What does this fold into?
Amino acid sequence: MGRGGWVERGEGDSGGEQREKKKKKRVKKKRAKGGDDAVEEKEKEKEKQELVCLYPFTSSSSATQRKIKQQYDQLVKCHGSKGLTLAQVGQFANCLIEARNELQHKSEVIQRKFTITKALLFKADRSSFDRLRQQIYKLEMEQKRLEEDAFVYNWLQQQLKLSPAYKKMLEISACMELKAKSGELTEGTDSTDTEFSDISFEELLAQEKKDSFWQKNGKPRSCSG
It folds into this structure.
């Protein structure tokens, strides 16, 4: 009996050790999986950044992105034919300003609706609870689309500010404003405006023969690192 009892206890101890080993293996496997997930997430983020560097637009169903894209594609086309002017760069800058104002307005409207709907949901009865929950879901989807549009706007705005053509446009604008304030802007205004609209983009960028900002398939300077 004593020996049999010892054998039973030994088998029990052995079973406990096996369970402990299996548990440790599961923990290690789980940790390894978590590490793999983190690596995969980083790879996806890297791919997303590379994709953005090539072409920033994310949705064809967004009216805001379609409007910006139309202007952007025109700039790409003009740059390809070496006929891009400062006036066109200025138009694109104004297009981005309009997009920014539109996004800010949409954001305010969504936030206001979200606040009101959440307050109604807090006091809602069963008959209106599902309807209000659906409204909140739709607002969340609108907010997500708005964030995508804002991402595209922010990227383009950042790249535009790095463009030598944009910097030159600001210099000319500041110079004209200074002349106007000092009273020196006279009959020469017409000739200055003509120079502003007709000057070639390539002439302004002689020192930078490859301006990748306006190229769909080229990586902008800020993304080359």
